[in-house]
Amino acid sequence: MPEKLIGLIAHPGKEGVAELVKNLSEAFANRGMDVRLEGKTAALIGIESQETVESLAARCELLVVLGGDGTILQVVHDFGEKICPILGVNLGSLGFLTSVSSSDAIHVVEVIARGGYLLSHRTLLCVEVEREGTSICKRIGLNDAVISRGELSRLIKLQTSINGEVLTQYNADGLIISTPTGSTAYSLSAGGPLMSPDSGVFLITPICPHVLTNRSMIVSDASCIEITSTQSQQEVFLTVDGQELDRIKSGDIIRITKASRDLPLALLPEMSFFEVLRKKLKWSGSAL
Predict the structure, then answer these.
(1) Domain coordinates of the chain in residue numbers?
(2) Which of 94, 111, 116, 193 counts the highest number of beta carbons within 10 A?
């Protein structure tokens, strides 16, 4: 039976990460698994590796990512043509994507060795910008696409359509289009609802809207959402998962649809989405 090939990727700036990389590498090897380290991760323990996120994703059964939710988002954006399952180990407080703490890392190795993890398939956004009839950029996002104003504290006007039908023109600081996974991120801070990962929807959440009746809206993830800035003098920016920044010109069409691929997020059987919600949001069932 061939060895399981596991990729290990770590955020180099996290405290204690070098020791954890060393311990996990030894634990995987002791259980008969072949672990490959991404280049910067390998450097933490004084070895060389030419592996990249893209090369690991192309060959590995699973990527174990040490860091926080932001580290997971960065890894997703570094994928190439192949997307493989990710299991996140949080080196700080409990995250929504990295739902396993570093103190449970060796337990994670045991679960992986026996194939006991579960896969939660997370919807990805496909975000495309069209300018004068030509596509100028295309991004993939796990959490959200955010259209926001520049440095000046002025409202921006964003004409928004769903499947070719005008929804409204938002006069706001910005607009968040999120997946259910992203409902626990910026959208939640802006007043949007929480959605379970399998909801099959997108959330449209305005940021500080001028019209108080403009509230977060839920649409099917089969929808095509098109957003156009109607102001020529106002700076407008697009970010996807906080990883890329694109300046949007008046008349550009931002087109958001469901990506053709999804992200298999690996979870421990005892750590469901709802368990993470209860712990992360401190839902004790008591007012105290």
Answers:
(1) 5-117+268-280, 125-260
(2) 111
Indicate the CATH number for domain 5-117+268-280.
Answer: 3.40.50.10330
- Distance CA(154)–CA(136), nearest Å, equals 26
**pLDDT tens by residue, 211-231:** 888 999 999 999 999 999 987
Catalytic residue among 34, 69, 104, 246: 69
Token pair 């996990």: residue? 24
Cut 0.90: pTM above it: yes
**Domain 125-260 in this protein, CATH class:** mainly beta
d(CA 122, CA 179): 8
> CA-to-CA distance for 97 and 24, rounded, in angstroms?
20
Spans of the chain below 50 pLDDT: 1-2
Q: How far apart (Å, rounded) are the C-alpha atoms in residues 40 and 9?
A: 8
- Cα dist from 162 to 136, 194, 225, 238, 261, whole Å: 21, 21, 5, 19, 22
CB-neighbour burial class of residue 113 (10 A; exposed 0-12, middle 13-18, buried 19+): middle
Fold match between domain 5-117+268-280 and domain 125-260: no
